[in-house]
UniProtKB/TrEMBL annotation:
It is a single-pass membrane protein. This is ATP synthase subunit b, chloroplastic. It comes from the Eukaryota. Keywords: ATP synthesis, CF(0), Chloroplast, Coiled coil, Hydrogen ion transport, Ion transport, Membrane, Plastid, Thylakoid, Transmembrane, Transmembrane helix, Transport. GO terms for molecular function: proton-transporting ATP synthase activity, rotational mechanism. F(1)F(0) ATP synthase produces ATP from ADP in the presence of a proton or sodium gradient. F-type ATPases consist of two structural domains, F(1) containing the extramembraneous catalytic core and F(0) containing the membrane proton channel, linked together by a central stalk and a peripheral stalk. During catalysis, ATP synthesis in the catalytic domain of F(1) is coupled via a rotary mechanism of the central stalk subunits to proton translocation.
Amino acid sequence: MKSVTDSFVSLGHWPSAGGFGFNTDILATNPINLSVVLGVLIYFGKGVLNDLLDNRKQRILSTIRNSEELRKGAIEQLEKARARLRKVEMEANEYRVNGYSEIEREKENLINATCDSLERLENYKNETLHFEQQRAINQVRQRVFQQALQGALGTLNSCLNSELHFRTISANIGILGAMEE
């Protein structure tokens, strides 16, 4: 195998006819060309590559900082939302308790009002029954009195003569006249 230095074309090996030529041995020239291209790329491309990597690094760091800021903002908003949720839950529980208390109060008021109404209706019913009983008793008394009076008049008319009848009427008129004065 030839060494790397042998693969360089030396002037001593060139044919005398031309002076310049191409080495057509691909296996010998390819590593040399690659090493030259890589060397040029590394030498001149190092700055560009560093700039690209630095820019990329700065973008990544900037993205991380922005993400951290957004994360902190989201955490703050989450805490605020949780605080509002706790406050709303407390208010809802308060309304629920107050609502139940109000419902119980209204229920008691309604029961009391209904009991009062029933008591008034019972009293009205009792008064009406008492009134109707008194009216019925008065009607019965009046009929009994009328029947007794008719019976007494019938008895008096059959037993009394006209003179006795006249004296009884006069006495009754006198009693009624004394009552009016």
